[in-house]
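Subject: design request, 751 residues
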């Protein structure tokens, strides 16, 4: 992750890992007896076949009850919503059983009631499903009904409006629900602008914009048989199931589905967001990070590790926060392994006056799980719970269908289902410690608090949290990069002194003296399309994210009043937040270092801490690094807008991207016809004109040229810095390398 890391210190709590602290108990204590051995579980026989049109049909024989469950899954959901139309997938699923081209919604309800069955439809980010449960003698009628609702939805205008009203009404209730808001904001922090991070029901604005044509197009694009799986489970033979599937779906032609174009989830990063709800008497807390998808080979071990942290059978969080401290009615942790990614989240709610203590204890438990080996008995308790409850997950046809569909969706072999108990009981404490150390990033946990910010902020400062983003609940916008509904104001090209900015900088600039301005609106589609092309021209997102270090030798010439002043420099960059510049100027050696928030200088006069203003400038330059900007913008952590096209000083046409976000003033990138960045513009605070006068803003422009390919990444070997239109320095790279080892000692301040 290239993002500037925010310092975050947590108070450690001494933890006893044994019962040694309980000395001389007043009466004998006996351990609970060990759990009974898990009984053997037999998964019923099944058959998998594919129709000629590509539909996959899975039949599981289960003759204990005269019932049959049909579950048809479409591999498309909210993650496939069109740009700017969040909620299309949800709306399609809610309308499937609300009328077809041959049946009204009332007729559908009457028919399923007449045969004593159940019919429902739903969706999540990854898939849409239609489910039916009937007695065996009604199997044929149920198959006809399932085929009709999945193939021929009417999308009647009156039903569309009714469903829109229901969704919007639910959104209005959720907008004031701390529990919902905490979870929704947490998803945005963890997944960014990946579809998993956006509200599945959309927003009032996106729902209002959805048309009947949008729904029909979504259905036409994704509801094709080769994009579907049908599971039939119950008192039926393979021959009967195959014949019924062929009868109702066999004549449905194949289709091509669009390629998925969503952004990748960002890598874990520290961010603390507080949604301020002044009338709250308690605080909702969420702590967690990005994790692994369901298909990952370590997922079962990882899932068991999180069960120890906060799940069934163990739950350290509940024991510490409720049983020992009495801070809450309940606390838990869970990991969700989805098709494309996964996450871990620990959650609780607590009184406002105990917010800081509860948060500290939660983070302590993350650290404890990562650092210390899980005791055998604690692990056995969690394993026993999972092994003992597993038979209940395949008890009925509907339960079996759920297991089968989950495995198929996540591309897991069905052979794993009957071996679950053996696999989970074979996990060792060493396995738990390995996955905890591999996947928990305690220095990059995302934290969300919803409550009375003014009341608990002093508690957070006592924990060392000084960089939290406080967002009033009325201004919360999950679709904005800054999570704020505020919009930036448009200004003309600034006048600085008696000079006006150069022509192609005269779009929108931040006139503030280094202060973050109001947040711009969410990234628009045209901006993101242009950004993707810029990233590809630079070398592609994968290569850019692969850059861990840079070492560059340059010749830098400063434009001084007495004439040009040349110097030779070597720059070391270690992403995300360290750099060192060694320079030789007129025979004298100087060094400037920024190390994760701390800055120091070395010159012939000695070593000293950088002045606060200079350290702040260093930190800002780290956030403006081009590689950092492109990655954070592409992964949804920054807002991107496309401004009006312009021209350079030599009349070349350029497109203009404006990038902004938390801790980052607006930066404009100027892109030529080859999708190369030829300029970067931003404002920085200047010195006050007279003592006591407020500092004026300086318009800075960096001009890039002479792009060359280095390890697959295009690098500008020539750069020039102008301030208020006047040349300040010119830099020429003589040698550059990526990902060479850079010793940590280079960034440590000498004693």
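Subject: RE: design request

Done. Sequence follows.
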């Amino acid at each position: 992750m290239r993002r500037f890391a925010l310092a975050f210190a947590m108070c450690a709590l001494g933890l006893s890992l044994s019962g040694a602290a309980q000395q001389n108990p007043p009466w004998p204590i006996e351990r609970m007896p060990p759990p009974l051995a898990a009984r053997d579980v037999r998964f019923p026989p099944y058959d998998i076949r594919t129709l000629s049109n590509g539909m996959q049909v899975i039949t599981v024989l289960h003759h204990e009850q005269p019932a049959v469950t049909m579950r048809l899954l479409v591999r498309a959901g909210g993650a496939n919503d069109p740009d700017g139309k969040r909620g299309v997938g949800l709306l399609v699923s809610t309308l499937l059983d609300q009328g077809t081209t041959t049946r009204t919604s009332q007729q559908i309800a009457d028919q399923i009631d007449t045969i004593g069955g159940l019919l429902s439809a739903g969706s999540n980010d990854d898939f849409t499903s239609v489910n039916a449960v009937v007695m065996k003698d009604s199997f044929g009628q149920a198959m006809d009904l399932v085929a009709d609702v999945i193939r021929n939805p009417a999308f009647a205008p009156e039903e569309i409006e009714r469903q829109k009203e229901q969704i919007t009404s639910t959104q209005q209730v959720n907008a004031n629900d701390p529990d919902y808001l905490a979870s929704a904001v947490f998803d945005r922090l963890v997944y960014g602008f990946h579809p998993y991070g956006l509200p599945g029901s959309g927003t009032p604005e996106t729902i209002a914009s959805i048309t009947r044509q949008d729904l029909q197009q979504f259905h036409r694009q994704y509801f094709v048989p080769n994009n579907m799986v049908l599971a039939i489970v119950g008192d039926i033979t393979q021959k009967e199931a195959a014949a019924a599937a062929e009868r109702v779906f066999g004549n449905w032609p194949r289709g091509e589905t669009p390629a998925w174009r969503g952004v990748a989830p960002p890598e874990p990063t520290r961010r603390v967001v507080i949604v301020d709800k002044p009338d709250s008497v308690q605080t909702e807390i969420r702590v967690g990070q990005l994790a692994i998808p369901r298909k990952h080979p370590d997922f079962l071990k990882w899932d068991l590790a999180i069960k120890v942290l906060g799940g069934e059978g163990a739950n350290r969080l509940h024991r510490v926060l409720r049983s020992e401290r009495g801070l809450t009615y309940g606390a838990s942790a869970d990991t969700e392994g989805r098709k494309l990614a996964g996450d871990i989240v620990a959650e609780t709610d607590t009184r406002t006056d105990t917010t800081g203590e509860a948060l500290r204890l939660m983070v302590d438990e993350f650290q404890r799980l990562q650092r210390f080996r899980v005791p055998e008995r604690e692990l056995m308790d969690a394993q026993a719970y999972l092994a003992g409850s597993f038979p209940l997950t395949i008890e009925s046809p509907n339960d079996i269908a759920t297991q089968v569909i989950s495995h198929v969706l996540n591309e897991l072999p069905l052979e794993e289902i009957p071996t679950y108990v053996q696999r989970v009981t074979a996990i060792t404490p060493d396995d738990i410690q390995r996955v905890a150390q591999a996947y928990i990033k305690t220095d990059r946990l995302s934290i969300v608090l919803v409550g009375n910010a003014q009341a608990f902020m002093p508690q957070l400062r006592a924990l060392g949290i000084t960089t939290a983003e406080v967002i009033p609940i009325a201004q919360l916008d999950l679709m904005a990069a800054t999570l704020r509904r505020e919009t930036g104001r448009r200004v003309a090209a600034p006048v600085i002194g008696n000079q006006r900015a150069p022509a192609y900088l005269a779009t929108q600039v931040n006139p503030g003296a280094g202060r973050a301005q109001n947040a711009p609106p969410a990234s628009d589609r045209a901006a993101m399309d242009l950004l993707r092309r810029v990233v590809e021209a630079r070398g592609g997102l994968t290569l850019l994210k692969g850059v861990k270090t840079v070492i560059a030798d340059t010749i830098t010439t400063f434009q001084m009043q007495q004439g040009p002043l040349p110097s030779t420099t070597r720059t070391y960059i270690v992403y995300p937040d360290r750099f060192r510049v060694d320079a030789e100027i007129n025979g004298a050696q100087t060094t400037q270092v920024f190390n994760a928030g701390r800055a120091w200088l070395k010159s012939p006069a000695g070593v000293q801490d950088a002045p606060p203003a200079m350290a702040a400038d260093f930190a800002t330059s780290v956030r403006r690094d081009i590689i950092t900007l492109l990655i954070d913008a592409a992964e949804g952590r920054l807002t991107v807008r496309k401004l009006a096209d312009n021209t350079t000083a030599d009349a070349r046409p350029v497109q203009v991207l404006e990038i902004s976000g938390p801790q980052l003033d607006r930066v404009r990138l100027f892109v030529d016809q080859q999708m190369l960045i030829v300029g970067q513009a931003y404002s920085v605070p200047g010195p006050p004109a007279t003592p006591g006068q407020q500092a004026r803003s300086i318009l800075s422009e960096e001009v890039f040229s002479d792009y060359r390919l280095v390890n697959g990444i295009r690098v500008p070997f020539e750069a020039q810095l102008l301030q208020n239109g006047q040349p300040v320095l010119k830099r020429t790279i003589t040698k550059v390398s990526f990902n060479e080892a850079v010793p940590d000692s280079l960034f440590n301040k000498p004693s």
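The two ends are 31 Å apart (CA to CA).
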